[in-house]
Amino acid sequence: NLERRPRLARPCAILAHAGDGLVCYLALAISALLAERARATVGRMAIATLLAAGAVALGKVAFGRPRPIPEESRRWSSLGRHDDLAFPSGHAARTAAIATVAWGVSPAAGAALTAWSLAVSLCRVGLGAHYIGDVIVGTMVGVVGALVLRWIGWP
Asked: How many other C-beta atoms lie within 10 A of the C-beta of residue 15?
């Protein structure tokens, strides 16, 4: 937890929010508008994140694990209504799905987005929103969602 390191809390909160759904989908939409050649990849990223989101929602309902430090997690939330369930991590799933799709197009982009995904996930743990297992399983959900799309060849 970052309570012992207050100087890291604010930057970590900002980085953690870089994995928020609204931020990711807005970035994907802007990318699709600005880079016509990237539209198919951006579409795969969006679909992979939606597959992962469905699996995350099912997991949260099925397991019902509360966040490690709910009040601290709420403090850093950008949402008016905060999700009190931690397992698996939606941020980890979303960012891992995006990074996994990127690896199929460009190893450099894949590596950069994997580093971003890891940083978002670790900051979520540091802020008390998740246990490490939540982000590990969330990452696996995102990777599997992206690989399923690739395996079936869609889109």
From this structure: 18
Q: How confident is the model at residue 78 (pLDDT cuts 50, 70, 90)?
A: low
The answer to whether residues 16 and 91 touch, using CB atoms and an 8 Å cutoff, is: yes
**Cα 30 from Cα 35, distance rounded (Å):** 8
pTM of the full structure: 0.86
DSSP letter (8 states) at residue 19: T
Residues 6+ apart with CB under 8 A from 137: 59, 87, 88, 89, 92
Structure tokens at 139: 């990452």
Answer yes or no: are the C-beta atoms of 58 and 130 closer than 8 Å: no
Tens-place pLDDT, residues 18-75:
888 888 888 888 888 877 888 888 888 889 999 999 999 999 999 989 888 776 655 5
C-alpha to C-alpha distance for 137 and 22, rounded to whole angstroms: 22
**Residue 90 and residue 77: Cα distance in Å, rounded?**
13
